[in-house]
Every structure is written in C-alpha cells, then in structure tokens.
Amino acid sequence: MPQSWLQLSIRAAKRDLEILSNYMIEQGSPGIVLKNGGVDAFFLSSRRDAALKSQVERFVSARTDKARLEWNIVQPEDWEHSWKRFIKPARIGRNFWVTPPWLKQPKFRRRRIITIEPGMAFGTGTHATTRSCIELLEIVAAKNTGNKWSVLDVGTGSGILAIAARILGATKIWAIDNDPVAVKVARDNLRFNGMGSAITLSGEKLGSIRRRFTVVIGNLTAETIIELAGTLQARVAGHGYLILSGILHSKSQNVLRRFAKSFFVLQRRRKREWIGLLLQRKS
To answer: Domain 127-281 - what CATH class?
Structure first.
C-alpha cells in the first residue's frame, strides 16, 4: 500500500533557512524545498511521526526566533502534483542541463540534457551535494579522456550520477541502492535517458561486490561514509578515484581522517555547508 508523507512547512528568518534545511536532511528527509522566507521538508509517515515532530520542534525552537511550523499529511496521489510546481530545469557543472520529463527540454549546443523524474522520494538532482559530485566527476572524466574507465555509484538514488558518468564517457557503470523505491526511480530515469542497457542497476549490497572500479561515488552522509569506509576504498582500483559528498562541513575532517592512509585529496568543493571530496588512491 502506498505510504503517505509528512510535509513540514517552516516560516523563518532567511539566515536560519540553511541550518534548518541541513537538520531536516540529517533527520531523514529525502526532499527539501527552499522558498522565499521558508522551507518545506518531506518525511515518509511512520510510527515515529510523533517522536519526529517533537524532536524537530525542540530543535527549531532552540535555534531560531519566531519560526512558525505547520505539519500536513500528503497523500501518495497528491505527491507528484506537490512536487511539480517547485521543480525547474537547472544547469549543473560544465556539461549538463537537468530537467524533469514534463517540461519542455531547453536547447543548449554545449550541454547534454539529463531527464530526471523525481518520483516519490527524490528531487531532480540539483541539490548542492549532487552538483559537487557531478563537477568532480567531470574532473575525473577529463583525466581519463581516451581511456576506458568504470564507475560504481553507491546509493544511486535517482540515478543521475550514473547517467552523467555514462555521458562523460565511462564504459562500465554499476549503480546500487538498498532502497527498492530508489531502484525503481533510477530504472525509470535510465529509460528516460536511453540508458536502460548501458548501466547495471540493482539493489545489491556494497559488501557483496568484489570487482574494483576506476571511480567509486558515494553521495551519502558523513556517518554512512565512515561506516562503509573500508568497503568503499576496497572497491577503488589502483590509482583510482573516490568521490564523496553529502558531508556537512563540520564533519568533513572526520571523513578525511578515515581515508588519509590510502588516499590523497585532489579536490574539495564547498557549497554552503556541504563538502564534496575527490580523493585518489595512493597506489
């Protein structure tokens, strides 16, 4: 049976919106919409709704002044309509224009269009963490021009990073996610972009994969990256690359320390409070 969603609408001072958005993502919101003077966050409705509301309200009252909160239930049949009015085409990196399928595709000679259907739990890939991943992936692609290179996209979500990797020239791509909803959304997006057979997509667990890749991407959270650090780095080929994002600036040093022995830092990208890292294996 399709699940309902909790929609939290917060009206607050502009200076507080970023910290509120980051906190909602840390609490498990897969969808954030920033608006003029406010932010909307969406959560899958569950038995922990009361505890979530209490925790969020305590945080907001302690960190902001005069914020107004409103909770609503969004039924599954209303979800698509709720999202569509907020999503617009966006330029990402040097090579891409990302757009949902219901909008007319813009024409850009020097940019490739990626069509992303948000589905029930994902935006179109324009969040700062995804932007950093694509920009860092573009750097890796430039370093591998003329060579065959492979990609493992861990926690693929909408599939946008796997699609971008294919467009940038990766010859073998695996995309995995342990969320069945994500796998379904990603499969639809591969089809929208004509890549249904070009990318291996599955719900396989990272620990069950044995082959190594030129590039491993993890747009996750700092906590998950640290938890999976040993397995992530084991999947990177010699002198290969690790792209990490979804990391709050305050937690970036903890992540870097976990990989310092085997990797050196090629690039750091900061977008607001988020850090994206491009690491290369030392040997």
So the answer is: alpha beta
